[in-house]
Design brief:
nine-stranded mixed β-sheet, disordered N terminus, Alkaline Phosphatase, subunit A, Arylsulfatase, C-terminal domain, 450 residues, 2 domains, 15% strand
Length: 450
């Protein structure tokens, strides 16, 4: 198995990573970091990824001014664990988050906690300790809402300011007039929420211009129900409703960038645009750009998502990186490196520092695999309605290989993603030694989880 062994070699990663950021980090002041996270957005939803759902000129321009990645992976094919991976830099099931956080009874059925433990490693807390001002504006979904009333408040995770949606410990009253995600009584209507969060972000930066800032700007408008205006029927998952929502999100990204320029901070801001998990519905794979699967699936369509990074004069302009495999759990060590922030004592990330890739040096090998799990039972977990899109419930990506297998060791599927990104050709029968090695790794990892 020389291919897999070489892929793990730490020397290669050290050689690739260290020289590139060495110059950029030492010569540039610590940047503001704004992480824009869209909800249930697929690569086929954006023009810069070849999508045709709706025009996205502002996001396309962001990609033209920065670097666009083709192999970015979420930590989960559903929202709460995906977000947990971003915050902690660790695989979400470590913190007993396996599905979307819901009622206490539903959480027990999913073998998960009711909220992200405040003692978990926290990226905003690490940046805050290094002198950053920190804020969370938008969807949270890591505790709070429904019948969970004791979730930790935002400050417990290291945020100086916050405005959460309904599924959070501190829902903002202007967008949560009722005991639900949204209502007609909300002061800020659903189709105005992205603008509301962008305004809060710009105001936060305006009030803290003398300090580096870290802002999670986590949008929820591309999650159903799609409601682009007062006349839209939110109960209809139509292409037209989605198009309207995407156009408005794109317009607000343009407003955000203009606001950064007006504040005079665009040149010192690292702006990231990404998605939390795959889309659903996919409109016959148009939204996954032909990738198999969707939200709720460990196939590529549920996990492989848009990721754009732009920091003028630091990230290369107009670059497409189809080589680097980067993951949500990489963001913690990567942002700590860029922000010159120390991780917590004894912290062990499941990701790795991929800052070199953000600065234009493609990473050919990772030092460790990426793992996923989703779907511990049939009663409390939702799955794609299309049988072909329902995956086995454990997966590992190691080099070009991706293995999917059930936690009981059945139904192994092996794909070479360098030649088969659509996961059409199952090579498990032809590559038994690869299957055996990756199965051992994947199931050992799965057994190690709470």
């Amino acid at each position: 198995m020389p291919g897999i062994l070489n892929w793990r070699t730490l020397f290669v990663v050290a050689f690739v990573l260290n020289p590139v950021l060495g110059g950029a980090a030492e010569s540039t002041a610590r940047p503001h970091i704004i992480f824009v996270l869209a909800d249930d957005l697929g690569p086929g939803d954006l023009g810069c990824y070849g999508g045709t759902i709706a025009p996205t000129p502002n996001i396309d321009q962001l990609a033209a001014d920065g670097i666009r990645f083709e192999q970015y992976y979420a930590a989960s094919p559903i929202c709460s664990p995906s977000r947990c991976g971003l915050i902690t830099g660790q695989f979400p099931a470590r913190w007993r988050i396996t599905s979307y956080l819901q009622t206490r009874a539903g959480n027990r059925g999913c073998e998960q906690a009711d909220y992200l433990d405040a003692s978990a490693p926290s990226l905003p807390r690490a940046l805050q300790a290094s002198g950053y001002k920190t804020a969370h504006f938008g969807k949270w979904h890591l505790g709070g809402g429904r019948d969970v009333e004791n979730a930790p408040r935002f400050a417990a995770y290291g945020y100086d300011a916050s405005a959460g949606t309904w599924e959070s410990p501190e829902p903002h009253p202007d967008i949560t007039a009722s005991d639900w995600i949204w209502s007609n009584e909300d002061k800020v209507k659903r189709w105005e929420r992205t603008g509301f969060f962008v305004d809060l972000t710009l105001d936060f930066l305006r009030r803290h211009k003398s300090s580096p800032c870290f802002v999670n700007l986590w949008l929820d408008d591309t999650h159903t129900p799609w409601t682009p205006d007062a006349d839209a029927d939110p109960h209809r998952e139509t292409r037209s409703n989605l198009q309207g929502v995407i156009r408005e999100m794109d317009r607000q990204i343009g407003r955000l960038r203009r606001g950064l320029r007006e504040l005079g901070v665009e040149e010192e801001t690292l702006l990231i645009f990404a998605s939390d998990n795959g889309p659903l519905p996919t409109f016959k794979e148009a939204r996954t750009r032909g990738l198999r699967g969707s939200k709720l699936s460990l196939y590529e369509g549920g996990l492989r998502l848009p990721f754009i990074a732009c920091w003028p004069d630091n990230t290369p302009a107009g670059r497409e990186d189809a080589t680097s495999v980067i993951a949500a759990v990489d963001m913690f060590p990567t942002f700590c490196r860029i922000a010159e922030a120390a991780p917590p004592p004894h912290y062990a990330s499941d990701g790795e520092d991929v800052s070199a890739a953000l600065f234009g040096q493609a990473i050919n090998t990772r030092s460790r695999p990426v793992y996923w799990e989703y779907g511990r039972n049939d009663e409390f977990f939702a799955y794609p309605k299309k049988p072909r899109d329902r995956s086995p419930n454990v997966a590992i990506r190691s080099g070009p290989w991706k293995l999917l297998i059930n936690a009981d060791g059945t139904n192994a599927e092996l794909y070479n993603l360098s030649t088969d990104r659509e996961e059409v050709h199952n090579l498990a029968a032809q590559q038994p030694s690869v299957v055996e090695e990756l199965t051992d790794q994947a199931l050992d990892w799965r057994k190690s989880l709470p």
